[in-house]
Amino acid sequence: MFSQMVSETLEGTSGALKASESAGIQAMNDKADLVQVVTTVQNAEMVLETVVAVRDKVIAAYNDIIKMPI
Length: 70
Fold this sequence. Notes:
There is one protein chain. The chain has one domain (2-67). It has helices at residues 2-28, 34-67. The longest helix has 34 residues, at 34-67. It has two helices and no strands. 87% of the residues lie in helices and 0% in strands. With 70 residues, it is mainly α.
C-alpha cells in the first residue's frame, strides 16, 4: 500500500517534470504560450518541493527510530 502510493507519487512527479521540460522546449520553438510555460514550471517545482519535503520527513523518522533504545 505505502510502496504503491510512493510509486504513484513518483510517477506523477516524473510526469510533471517531463511536462515542464516539454513546455520549455515548445516555448523555445515559439509553439507555447509563456503563461502556460510558467504555470507548468511552477507546478513541477511545487510537486518536486513536496517530494523533497516527504523525503526529509521519512529520513527524520528513520533517524528517530534508529536512535530509540532497544
